[in-house]
Protein: TIGR00725 family protein
Amino acid sequence: MQALFWNERTQQLSDGARVFDPLALTWRDDAPEHDGKAVTASEALLRLAATRKLRRVPIGIIGPRDATQAQYDLAEQMGAALARHGLQLLCGGKNGVMEAACKGHAQEGGMPVGLLPDEEWHAANPYVAIPIATGIGPARNAIIARACLVLVAIGGGVGTLSEMALGLQFNRLVLAMADAPEVNTVERVADVDGVIARIAARLLANA
Structure:
């Protein structure tokens, strides 16, 4: 990851030679006025979010409907962290890990999107701000995997495993937490801060 600098006066992120465009999610060759303060990728993401100009490409949190308490708590923390960093949550919109992620995201001011397998929006958990009823059942897993920049798996069984595999097929960054299924090339991350750091690095590196 390249060195990053935040200019508080211009509200711009640079790498010393280029300026980051938070809407286009690209680096422009415009020379910055001066470097500014050195920041980590996670810190850069926080500052970009505060400008309210960051394009919100979704981040997916995936996991079981019958979550354990530990999985539920972790998903809630993860959803909250996404909202604090200006990241859009997209999930399956049902119970368990999905509900917990939506709860944390909503409580931090986010507007979680739930892509439901059901035919009616009423099937969404109570924390989904934007329910999208697809009526296509488990096939909606492919849409979640395709639409998200990063997938974060917290626990899970066959359904979660299918989303992880689809994410890899679509060349998405797939991260595993807690007791998510073991999959080759899927990186296991120990904590929420580690996940945010990987998301930030991916978002800025993709630009």
Observations:
- The domain at 59-206 is CATH 3.40.50.450 (Rossmann fold).
- The helical segments are 41-50, 69-84, 97-107, 140-147, 158-169, 192-206.
- The mean pLDDT is 94.
